[in-house]
User: Fold this.
Amino acid sequence: MLENLKEKLTKSQVFRSIFRHGFPDNDMNRAYVVFSNVFLHVHPVKVRRSALRMRYTFCLGGITLFLFIMLSVTGIWLMFYYTPYTGLAYNNIQDLQFVIFGGNLMRDLHRFAAHGMVLFVWLHMTRVFLTGAYKAPREFNWVVGVLLLVMTLILSWTGYLLPWDQLAYWAVTVGTKMASYTPFIGQNGPWGAQLGFLPTNDIMFMLIGGTVVGQNALIRFYVLHCVVLPLFVTIALAVHFWRIRKDGFSGPL
Amino acid sequence: MENKVTREIFPRDARKSYGLVELMKGSNPIVKKEPEDTVYTWPNLIMIELICALLVTAGLIILVQFVHAPLRSLADPSTTPNPMRAPWYFLGLQELLVYFDPWYAGVVLPGMIIVGLMTFPYVDTNPKGVGYYTFSERKFAIFNYSFGFALWWVTIVIGTYLRGLDWQWYWPWSDHLVHMNPALVTLVPLHIVFVNLLHVSKDVGKALCDLLFFAYFAVGMAIPYFLMRKFYDAMGGARYVVFMIFFLSMMGVGLKIVLRLLFNIKYIVVTPWINV
Assistant:
């Protein structure tokens, strides 16, 4: 009877319109499930048995991607409770901690997944380096990977400001102060003042929208953290995966 | 289809005629292809990924039962915490501020690290060691990577555990509540050392320092060019120059840290505009 039901279900017009093939319990459908699905088609239909060996990749890149997905999910959840306004931000975080159901769990997961992502990007990079996987013809994908590393760090750092506590405020104050030391375009940097850069028009002013970290800096970091950088990371990830398929997997074949 | 692999697997006997057919365990026939060692992505690879994702999720959920995201008091522009620590992944850069001026430690060096990382695949001309772990075939490359990241991690550990009030050096057994007397350490630029040691004038001392600085890069550039010709020839001029600039700069950072910690040298080169 169960077989009958399964037969009816997979042959129905609705099911066929979504999946175009039956359950992946035979080789044809196993091939279909991968190449007819937009999410799975980043994979080839078949892989070498040796490419599955865990001790080559240790799943490090995959774990990094998974942490990014997890950060997106918990991050969007947190956005429902957060206001990028200096008068409210800190209270919102306290509400998450003490009032909102699951608030602590989501905030903790977001925080430690972020630390984890920085760590796993580095581990993945080390693996790629040690196996020489960046060498021709995969040079450009290494460059994309370095960009992803940089964006991961900036993502992490822009998120640091959002709780608007002492830790956030001063870490970002010191960090953005660095920008004012940029040669030529920072007011404290070499040849900055000579070129006419002041606290009110240099690169740091552009970064935080003022002379000190305040409301403008908070909204800038918020938009960068929640919209701009995740978008760029997603685009870079698409290129990163595409290039793996085009340039080939480096592992034992 | 006959090629090297099939010839090895099925050595031909000239007295016989053949049809190359092999029986293998599998669920579909392969025609005009050698036997291959592939499996379907679904479910073999997908399952590994799923299990991996579940383990990471479980690990994180367990972790956050024991450690929590910190939340200090409300941001207060009038109260500066002491010491003020950057997030751990930037502590290396923060620690570099001890050894270099902010324009270099905070802007130029991070930029060089990023660009330097990007140049790896273009300056590494060694064709060996792709697709497997090896140290013996790529000793120099792995040495460089390890040296750079050792600097990165060591400065993070110093920043996390060995820096206290006013970003002074505190041993784990020092009293972290008492300010160190900054007068105990006098930092001097290198040319003052020359002035005191060689009894030369300030200007001569400065000239010596400039000379030393340029000699470091000039000699560093020249040594492999003249003495390790194979290394140079394998790279070619452009790759060599790019690689050596990053290599010598990285070694220079290590050297400066040693000079600063052991001999209290603040600057090597002093100019009216920038000091290094």
The CA atoms of residues 234 and 266 of chain B lie 38 Å apart. The beta strands of chain B are 38-40.
